[in-house]
Amino acid sequence: DGIVRDATILSAIGIGPDSRRSLLGVSVALSEAEVHWRAFLDNMVRRGLRGVQFITSDDHAGLGAARRAVFGGVTWQRCQFHLAQNAIHHAPSNAIRSVIGSELRAVWNAKDMDAANIELRLLVQRYAKIAPALSQWLERNVPEGLAVFSLPEHHRLKMRTSNPIERTVQQEIKRRTVKVRVFPSTDALLRLVSAVLVEIDPRPFQAQYQQAQAQKARDEAQLKNSQLDLERYTLLWQQDSISKQTYDTQRASVEQLKATVQADQAQVDNARLQLDYATVRAPISGRPGARLV
């Protein structure tokens, strides 16, 4: 009809028992209103989606209403990343905004649900007097981000936030569609989006993975060298050939490099995770490929 309208892409991914990710569905809608999300979820059920046990998403009103209607008995995990961003917006001062994210990470990274609840209580008490509105918001909302502790530990990393679908799927869709800007029809938009989602180019993620491995190898070599130096310094210090300060400095250097190698390993794990996300499958009804996207 010659009128340009906004459109949104609705998509969902699933994590199977083997911790691998699969694309469950993608759709073009006029908005993220409940009616569109509900139609999207209903369509996946009609196509054969069964056995949903856990859902992770942000606290979008339309999606939340549709989720409760279609998957009412399924455990819901509120995205921890979006929760932290929301907490920053509720912080009353720059000083609190600068630390609330790291304070919430102490809750997210707790070893189990009991430890997470203890960390949350301490956080709520910390702000009860200096920022009562924030304290009340944390007490009401943060528990919605703790459902992930009910999962086996090897599933928690992939299910704690909705960032994987936003970073590797939605960002790739945006990168492709922004070049076209105006599509002649929703079918044309869906065809491009479906083609993108069959396989996301893994080369950037492969490069990041290799870079993280190289950084770790370099720091491990420096650590090994520093440990050998510490052995020599220990002998020299015992012989009163060097000062205690020189010995302590070398020992601190070793500890610092150990921490660096641990951080490198975390970067390697994250890069490997992103690389794994580059391959997308549509497993519903057992037929892989673009046909079911």
Q: Care to describe what's here?
A:
This protein is mainly α. α9 packs across α10 and α11 packs antiparallel against α12. The chain starts with 7 loop residues before the first strand and ends in a 17-residue tail after the last helix. The strands form two sheets. Strands 1-2 form a two-stranded antiparallel sheet. It has twelve helices and four strands, in the order ββαβαβαααααααααα.
What's the short version?
This protein is mainly α. The chain has helices at residues 34-46, 61-70, 80-90, 94-97, 100-108, 113-126, 132-141, 153-159, 163-180, 186-198, 203-238, 244-276, and strands at 8-15, 21-29, 54-57, 75-78.
Largest beta-sheet details: 2 strands, antiparallel
Could you say which overall geometry the principal axes of the C-alpha atoms support?
A: globular
Instruction: Summarize model confidence as the mean pLDDT.
Output: 85
Helix content: 55-70%
